[in-house]
Every structure is written in structure tokens, then in C-alpha cells.
Amino acid sequence: MTYASLRAGRGPNALVVEALGVLGGVRGRALDVGAGPLNDTRFLLELGFSVEAVDTDPCTLALAAEWRHPRLRVVHADVRDVPVAAGAYSFMVAIHVLPFLPRADVRRVAAALAGGLAAGGVLCCTFFGPEDAWAGRPGRTFLRAPEAGALFPRLEPVVLREDRYDGIDARDEPKHWHVVRCVFRRPTGSA
Ligand SMILES: C[S@@+](CC[C@H](N)C(=O)[O-])C[C@H]1O[C@@H](n2cnc3c(N)ncnc32)[C@H](O)[C@@H]1O
Questions:
Q1: The Methyltransferase domain covers which part of the protein (predicted)?
Q2: Mean pLDDT computed over every residue of the chain
Q3: β 72-76/50-55 pair status
Q4: 37 CB near ligand 1 (under 6 Å)
């Protein structure tokens, strides 16, 4: 069972809702990286965005095929291989996906995402901190809020906070979470 199959049909992530408040009433193109069960994608479609959803999981593709939504395009690929069009997106989501990449890849993908934001555009993303129960797993990246901020030097940090709590994972097993929640905005005056 993949994350997408376990978590389909739920509401949007709270950080996505918070980030949309930062964006205001702007719509346009959105990019959902590591879209999984498409819960955030569906919310963005309902709000009027055109959404490109990237994920390696065939389940994501299958969910989208059921919907046949005219403003949804699913890219069944590794985010590291997907070119991000410069300045194309007003809104970007990368929830619980960047921590699953090695640090050098996180840096590269973060730079690509930042470059894809339109002026005034908003990116929300999460990282896992070093106190997370999964910390130390090979091939993954764990970092604190200042390190997350440093990945996006040309964006303005609007939300940059660390939350620690005991919760459950996708399989409903207990897990200690240390999550870095970020919302960045591309300044309107930037080239
Ligand atoms: C923990 S899930 C989060 C899904 C979704 N963002 C959410 O919050 O509901 C992580 C998702 O990222 C996808 N993923 C992991 N590594 C990826 C990569 N390198 N490229 C694209 N998708 C990836 C997984 O298949 C999975 O669907």
C-alpha cells in the first residue's frame, strides 16, 4: 500500500490553506510536487487553479485518471527529472516530499522550485527536523528551520516554524514528528 492509496479522499493539508491566505485571491498555475493522494491538488482545482501534480506513484496517476479533470495534469515522474518552467507558477506545494531526497538533491530541487515561482507567487513546503522519529534514515534530509530558509535565498520567508508532536504515520502507527513548516513568497519586485 502506498501513501496515496492509504490517504486518498482526505482534506487539504492545513499549511496549504494557510499559504493560500498569504497568496490572496490570485489563481493561475499551481504545482503540487509529491502530490500522492491528490488531496491538496483537488482543493486547488476546486479553487480554480490549473494544477500540475508530480509523483512517482502509479496510484496518483490512477486517481487522476478517474477524475479526468480538464485543469489537472499529472506528471508521473521523479521530481528531480521534471523541468520547472521559470516564473510559471503562482502557487506551489511540496508537502512531506523533500525530506525523502538526499541533501544535494533537495538543494537542486529547491532552487528549481524557487525559479518556477511567478513574482508574488507562494511556495509552501515541509521538512523533517533532526528530532523526528525517522531522523538518520539513509538517503533522506533532516534539517532545522534556518537551514530550510537558507535553501530559498531569493524568497521571502512568511512562515518558518518547527513543530514537535506525538502523532501517527500514514499507517496509523504512533510516530514522533518534528516538522519544519515553511511558506515563502517571491517578492513582486524581483527579476
Ligand atoms: C508522504 S507522501 C505526501 C503526499 C502529499 N504531498 C500529501 O501531503 O498528502 C510523499 C509523496 O511523495 C512521492 N515522492 C517521493 N519521492 C518522490 C520523488 N523523488 N519524485 C516524485 N514524487 C516523490 C511519494 O510517492 C508520495 O506520494
A1: 31-121
A2: 97
A3: parallel
A4: yes
